[in-house]
């Protein structure tokens, strides 16, 4: 991979499609990260505040509430990963191609 000149770097950084690509990825990444962090720290807070409630069975089954919540969190993280991949493939890949096309790379 060749090194870009300072002029090429400035041209890329000034490109509107590149700015949209960078800001869109950052917004999506931070948004999904915040959802994940709130969910996990909320679960930890719930464990510390209501440990006995998490050990209770769900509707008479052998499955404790805490285990069901943990499985639900895993499912949500998988869903969030799918959302990121879908958005990346649908929007960010096209923006990357646009930037490469506009800048002749």
Provide keyphrases for this structure:
single chain, 105 residues, mainly alpha, 4 helices, 81% helix
Describe this entry's structure for a reader.
- The chain has one domain.
- Helices cover 81% and strands 0% of the residues.
- The protein contains four helices and no strands.
- It has helices at residues 6-14, 16-49, 51-54, 65-102.
- It is elongated, with a radius of gyration of 22 Å.
- The mean pLDDT is 90.
Short description:
81% of the residues lie in helices and 0% in strands. By secondary structure, it is mainly alpha-helical.
Stretches where pLDDT is under 50 for at least 5 consecutive residues are none
Helix count equals: 4
The structural class is mainly alpha
Helical content band: over 70%
Number of strands: 0
Q: In sequence order, what are the helices and strands, one letter per element? A: HHHH
Distance between termini? 12 Å
Average residue-wise pLDDT = 90
Strand proportion:
under 5%
Number of domains: 1
Rg over CA atoms: 22 Å
Shape: elongated
In this structure, how is the largest beta sheet organized? Answer: none
